[in-house]
């Protein structure tokens, strides 16, 4: 069972605590992505797993063994760094062989391993080159190759794609996914890019301010964000959030009312935050939709669809509308229609998700 | 502005000075004449117009010197003879009317014939009666200052007084060990040995340093105890002259025997183990730590160390006459040289050479010489029974030479004739006793006063002398330190020197000497 | 100096360079009909601020390096300060003949090269080793204190240094002989023994300069990407392996550049310190070209001879530095130019 378990992991630098007790279990072969804004503690958490940072409090288990005091090299993890951490004075083959040489792996074994991995990563023609003579994507592959040749129990990725341009990033993302499917090694992947998180992860861990906000599969998180932070972090563009007050027939947003079913009498009058995903509105009324008057600011065409930047009262909103290439008709839009069953409610003070009724 | 200062200086000057200068028999020019001067010396890097002596000289002669010194922050080094400031002045292409410096002789004797300085022979004969009178009395000195072309290019600083250095010994140690003052080299060795072995400082350790010096070449002078010669003048490692023949101390057999014995002394601990590296603080350190036994050093400053008697019980450091050598001769090789390579010269752009030489001559007149030696009457000295005597207030100001420099007197970058009386007045009693002791005998030997080369001679000298000197010094130190035996190495050493051109060198020295001093 | 590891704002340096080159190309279009002179003029007018910033350096070079080259000709003249450089007569190779027919000059050349070689052999690695050692010290206060202590001798004048050395090696009171005495050896008058001069001189040089010299290597080490070490830690490298496999190769370009510069200075042995420490008894091993020239120059200000010796030094240094640079470029792709 080569899973990873974090049990109340805390990191503090002197009096300053930056990670406030992380509980997380990564199952064997699972691909878990830690995502969050910069400074949220995701990289620190990963580095504690790698052993590059000391764990202040809590327990770290890898493969059923407590690892707090175990040296990095004995944790049987391999890490891919943001800037690749390739040795400039060594060629590709030597870079990949570095960890094996350190471990005194026999030479012929090193060679076969490297040839295999280079084949998988398409690096075979470049084995004699130095990192300086490689493109960004090739360097990224070498960095991964260096991790793969070690056959570790756990892969750790620290924002491996953030130095690549957008196109290459998409391509490498797919490659990582394929590799994981093929190798099936437990992986923890840190990124600030929610698209990477959504596309790669078996499960996503959303972190903020040194705490876990929510853990779940990408779709769980997308559909049922536990709080306004997660709601605002995932999705592109993220969920619109408006201040509202619950009434017995629904939620009052400025002058408009979104009709909702099942508001209990106890909930009436409560201040909430109303969440609407940009893709869930429609321009024409449908079944069980409520009209939301808007003032249209700007239309951004994206091809088959367009982004509508609009205002309702004090709230700036973004909606996605299908256009099939014709955006002229959007200029007259004065209201959008919100389907009641797709509206999310959050507590106005705590930001936690609310359910209606009870 | 300049006229104003001049007028002010004249006013203050006449207010202080006595009516003795009221008559202007020393006046050179009716209207005040301004001349520029470069004056550079380690102790007074620029000429200062408000030196009291200059103020009075200006008043007496009407000649006003204006400071035009370049390279004031460069040392014209007494020891190495480098004349950086003069070189800089020359390189700047602008030579002031008067140039005064230490170590000026070789400089003017090289660049004078090239046209940079005014030849002085005729000027002296026609316009400088005092200087001419001096040279008439001392033709050897006149010869010594001449360049190879027979011209004089500078007016020298002429030291007075006979003695420089002497042998000194801790007489209280002699008493403590019941020893007599050493009279011969054998006795001297016995005394030094007793200092080493019998613990005269009584601290229970054999830490005494029987013989020490501040400048290691002084050690080499001890070869005179074995009838050798070391330094032919007050310049270390200089050639020597004996009966009209130029030679060098370091090729003599007496030197060989001396070095052999000094090596033995060194091995036996009679000579400071750190003799070559102890340096200028040796005397100060070894005497005040009650370690040093005997040295060869200047009269006045060494005698002054008897002030240590207040700290060290019974301390007495006294001069003694040179011990008799193996052949019975008592020789003090060091003396005050008769003429220094210091002084002043006239730059080739000077439009008033006659006035300038008369100004130079002024310092050889009775009043001028007194001014250059003693400073200003009433301010620094008073006339007592017809002789100048420093005022007590002036003597109390601190080191007398320093006070005199500050007054503008005793400036060796000026050509003048020193009056030894100035020094005698404040020489300490131990030095005086030593000088009187040395005066009873006849220990001094003639100095080599130097030669000026023709261009061809200069080339031979340049090619050979540096290497020869280096080689001689290398061997000298090695032998004393016991790396090699001078007796065994001697023939090879002489052959090596000849191979390096020693004979050629002596030849050009001899021809230059004969030309200069008439053979 | 190429440090291929350096990133500028996360972008590999060569990409920045390429961008810069492209930007330059964009800004200087080679339009048809324009002469190269008008293009140059346009270029200067557009970029004059940059050339203005370059100006002080150019002036410095002209005044202090190129103009003095005019004076080099006195090596072939019978120079008189009064006659000036132009007015002194030519003598051809006479001064060089004087130099090379002088055994002591040849000995001084040999000594210079020998001392420099020892300096290179022992003095060059010293600051590198020191820098590597400092890099391994984790305790910040201790590290800072140690660094300050080893930097200090650099700021002491040679005169003081020589005083310290003379005292330390004094046969009667020196610490070295005191220790020898405890160990039962006889006192040695080190500074008058020719065989001891070079060890003492080179050792003194190391003591004085190794600390300060380590700064440039520490700076190079500080420029090594820290994730290289982290990656190596995860790969299981220990500190020794990281030093040899990461730190040393990473600062190798700096080491090579410093070595080339050092080789260029091979004829320049610290002249003041030799003057202060040597004795006629140690000329045999201590006399270097500069001290020999200094002593010769005393005689009659033989600037022409000194210039000839200086020119010889410069030619030797030039050949050495060119050779070292070429070798370095060929074998390690690192070079000064």
TrEMBL record, chain A:
Signal peptide: none annotated. One of its GO terms (cellular component) is ATP-binding cassette (ABC) transporter complex, substrate-binding subunit-containing. One of its GO terms (molecular function) is ATP hydrolysis activity. The keyword Electron transport does not apply. Pfam families: ABC_tran, OB_MalK. CDD domains: ABC_MalK_N (cd03301). Residues 4-234 form the ABC transporter domain. GO terms for biological process: carbohydrate transport. Keywords: ATP-binding, Nucleotide-binding, Transport. The keyword Transport applies. SMART domains: AAA. Belongs to the ABC transporter superfamily. PANTHER family: MALTODEXTRIN IMPORT ATP-BINDING PROTEIN MSMX, OSMOPROTECTIVE COMPOUNDS UPTAKE ATP-BINDING PROTEIN GGTA. This is Carbohydrate ABC transporter ATP-binding protein, CUT1 family.
UniProtKB/TrEMBL annotation, chain B:
One of its GO terms (cellular component) is periplasmic space. It holds the Pfam family SBP_bac_1. The keyword Transmembrane does not apply. Residues 1-22 form the signal peptide. InterPro entries: Bact_solute-bd_prot1, SBP. It comes from the Bacteria. SUPFAM superfamilies: Periplasmic binding protein-like II (SSF53850). Its main location: periplasm. It is found in: Periplasm. The keyword Metal-binding does not apply. Keywords: Signal. Belongs to the bacterial solute-binding protein 1 family. This is Carbohydrate ABC transporter substrate-binding protein, CUT1 family. It comes from Poseidonocella sedimentorum.
From TrEMBL, chain C:
InterPro entries: MetI-like, MetI-like_sf, UgpAE/MalFG_permease. The chain crosses the membrane at residues 48-66, 115-134, 155-180, 200-221, 242-263, 305-327. Keywords: Cell membrane, Membrane, Transmembrane, Transmembrane helix, Transport. The keyword Transmembrane helix applies. GO terms for cellular component: plasma membrane. It is a multi-pass membrane protein. Its main location: membrane. Belongs to the binding-protein-dependent transport system permease family. This is Carbohydrate ABC transporter membrane protein 1, CUT1 family.
């Amino acid at each position: 069972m080569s899973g990873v378990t974090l049990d109340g992991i805390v990191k503090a630098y002197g009096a300053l605590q930056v990670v406030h007790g992380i509980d997380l279990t990564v199952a064997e072969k699972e691909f878990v992505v830690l995502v969050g804004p910069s400074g949220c503690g995701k990289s620190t958490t990963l580095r504690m797993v790698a052993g590059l940072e000391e764990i202040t409090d809590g327990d770290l288990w890898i493969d059923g063994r407590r690892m707090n005091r175990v040296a990095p090299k004995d944790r049987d993890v391999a890490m891919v760094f943001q800037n690749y951490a390739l040795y400039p004075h060594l060629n590709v083959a030597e870079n990949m062989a570095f960890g094996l040489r350190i471990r005194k792996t026999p030479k012929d074994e090193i060679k076969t391993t490297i040839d295999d991995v280079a084949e998988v990563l398409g690096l075979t023609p470049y084995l004699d080159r130095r990192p300086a003579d490689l493109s960004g994507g090739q360097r990224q592959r070498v960095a991964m190759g260096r991790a793969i040749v070690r056959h570790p129990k756990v892969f750790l990725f620290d924002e491996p794609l953030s130095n690549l341009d957008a196109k290459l990033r998409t391509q490498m993302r797919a490659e990582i996914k394929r590799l994981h499917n093929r190798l099936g090694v437990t992986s923890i992947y840190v990124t600030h890019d929610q698209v990477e998180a959504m596309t790669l992860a078996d499960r996503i861990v959303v972190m903020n301010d040194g705490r876990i906000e929510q853990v779940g599969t990408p779709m769980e998180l997308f559909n049922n964000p536990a709080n306004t932070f997660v709601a605002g972090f995932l999705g592109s563009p993220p969920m619109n959030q408006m201040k509202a007050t619950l009434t017995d027939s629904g939620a009052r947003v400025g002058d408009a009312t979104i009709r909702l079913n099942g508001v209990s009498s106890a909930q009436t009058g409560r201040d909430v935050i109303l969440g609407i995903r940009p893709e869930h509105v429609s321009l024409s009324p449908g079944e069980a939709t409520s009209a939301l008057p808007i003032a249209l600011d700007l239309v951004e065409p994206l091809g088959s669809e367009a982004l509508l930047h609009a205002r309702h009262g004090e709230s700036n909103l973004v909606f996605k509308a299908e256009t099939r290439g014709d955006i002229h008709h959007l200029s007259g839009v004065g209201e959008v229609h919100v389907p009641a069953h797709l509206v999310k409610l959050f507590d106005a003070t705590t930001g936690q998700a609310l359910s209606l009724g009870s | 502005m300049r006229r104003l200062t001049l007028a002010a200086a004249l006013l203050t000057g006449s207010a202080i000075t006595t009516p003795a200068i009221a008559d202007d028999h020393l006046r050179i020019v009716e209207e005040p004449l301004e001349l520029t001067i470069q004056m550079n010396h380690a102790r007074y890097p620029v000429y200062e117009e408000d030196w009291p002596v200059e103020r009075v000289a200006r008043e007496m002669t009407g000649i006003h010197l204006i400071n035009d010194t370049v390279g004031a922050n460069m040392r014209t080094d007494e020891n190495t003879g480098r004349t950086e400031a003069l070189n800089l002045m020359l390189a700047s292409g602008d030579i002031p009317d008067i140039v005064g410096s230490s170590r000026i002789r070789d400089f003017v004797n090289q660049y004078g014939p090239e046209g940079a300085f005014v030849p002085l022979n005729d000027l002296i004969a026609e316009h400088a009666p005092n200087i001419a009178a001096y040279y008439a009395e001392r033709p050897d000195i006149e010869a010594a200052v001449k360049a190879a072309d027979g011209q004089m290019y500078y007016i020298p600083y002429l030291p007075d007084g006979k003695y420089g250095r002497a042998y000194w010994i801790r007489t209280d140690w002699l008493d403590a060990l019941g020893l007599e003052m050493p009279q011969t080299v054998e006795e001297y060795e016995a005394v030094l040995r007793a200092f080493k072995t019998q613990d005269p400082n009584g601290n229970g350790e054999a830490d005494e340093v029987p013989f020490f010096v501040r400048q290691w070449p002084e050690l080499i002078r001890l070869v005179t105890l074995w009838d050798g010669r070391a330094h032919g003048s007050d310049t270390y490692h200089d050639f020597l002259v004996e009966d009209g023949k130029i030679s060098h101390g370091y090729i003599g057999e007496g030197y060989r025997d001396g070095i052999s014995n000094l090596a033995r002394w060194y091995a036996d601990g009679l000579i400071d183990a750190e003799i070559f590296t102890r340096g200028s603080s040796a005397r100060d350190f070894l005497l005040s730590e009650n370690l040093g036994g005997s040295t060869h050093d200047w009269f006045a400053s060494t005698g002054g160390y008897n002030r240590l008697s207040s700290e060290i019980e019974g301390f007495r450091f006294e001069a003694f006459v040179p011990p008799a050598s193996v052949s019975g001769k008592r020789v003090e090789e060091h003396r005050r040289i008769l003429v220094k390579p210091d002084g002043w010269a006239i730059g080739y752009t000077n439009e008033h050479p006659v006035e300038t030489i008369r100004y130079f001559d002024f310092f050889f007149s009775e009043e001028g010489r007194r001014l250059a030696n003693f400073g200003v009457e009433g301010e620094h000295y008073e006339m007592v029974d017809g002789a100048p005597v420093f005022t007590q207030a002036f003597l109390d100001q601190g080191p007398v030479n320093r006070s005199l420099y500050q007054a503008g007197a005793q400036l060796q970058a000026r050509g003048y004739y020193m009056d030894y009386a100035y020094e005698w007045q404040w020489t300490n009693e131990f030095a005086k006793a030593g000088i009187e002791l040395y005066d009873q005998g006849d220990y001094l030997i003639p100095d080599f006063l130097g030669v000026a080369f023709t261009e061809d001679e200069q080339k031979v000298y340049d090619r050979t002398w540096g290497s020869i000197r280096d080689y001689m010094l290398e061997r000298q130190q090695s032998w004393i330190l016991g790396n090699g035996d001078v007796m065994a190495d001697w023939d090879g050493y002489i052959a090596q020197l000849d191979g390096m051109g020693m004979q050629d060198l002596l030849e050009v020295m001899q021809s230059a000497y004969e030309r200069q001093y008439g053979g | 100096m190429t440090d291929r590891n350096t990133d500028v704002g996360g972008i590999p340096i060569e990409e920045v360079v390429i961008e810069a080159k492209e930007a330059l190309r964009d800004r200087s279009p080679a339009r048809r009909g324009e002469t190269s002179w008008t293009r140059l003029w346009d270029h200067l007018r557009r970029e004059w601020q940059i050339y203005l910033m370059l100006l002080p350096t150019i002036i410095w070079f002209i005044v202090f390096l190129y103009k003095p080259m005019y004076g080099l000709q006195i090596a072939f003249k019978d120079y008189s300060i009064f006659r000036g450089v132009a007015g002194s007569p030519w003598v051809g190779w006479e001064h060089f003949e004087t130099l090379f027919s002088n055994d002591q000059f040849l000995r001084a050349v040999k000594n210079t090269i020998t001392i420099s070689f020892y300096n290179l052999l022992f003095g060059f690695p010293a600051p590198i080793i020191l820098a590597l050692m400092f890099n391994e010290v984790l305790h910040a206060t201790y590290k800072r204190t140690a660094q300050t202590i080893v930097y200090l001798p650099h700021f002491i004048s040679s005169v003081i240094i020589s005083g310290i050395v003379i005292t330390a090696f004094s046969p009667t009171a020196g610490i070295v002989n005191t220790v020898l005495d405890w160990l039962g050896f006889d006192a040695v008058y080190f500074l008058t023994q020719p065989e001891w001069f070079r060890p003492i001189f080179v050792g003194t040089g190391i003591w004085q300069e190794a600390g300060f010299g380590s700064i440039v290597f520490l700076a190079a080490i500080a420029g090594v990407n820290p994730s290289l070490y982290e990656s190596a830690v995860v790969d299981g490298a220990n500190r020794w392996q990281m030093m040899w496999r990461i730190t040393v190769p990473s600062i190798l370009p700096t080491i090579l550049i410093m070595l080339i510069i050092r080789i260029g200075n091979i004829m320049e042995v610290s002249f003041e310190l030799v003057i202060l420490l040597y004795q006629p008894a140690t000329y045999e091993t201590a006399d270097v070209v500069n001290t020999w020239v200094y002593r010769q120059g005393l005689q009659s200000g033989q600037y022409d001879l000194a210039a000839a010796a200086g020119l010889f030094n410069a030619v030797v240094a030039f050949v050495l530095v060119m050779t070292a640079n070429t070798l370095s470029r060929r074998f390690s792709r690192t070079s000064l130019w």
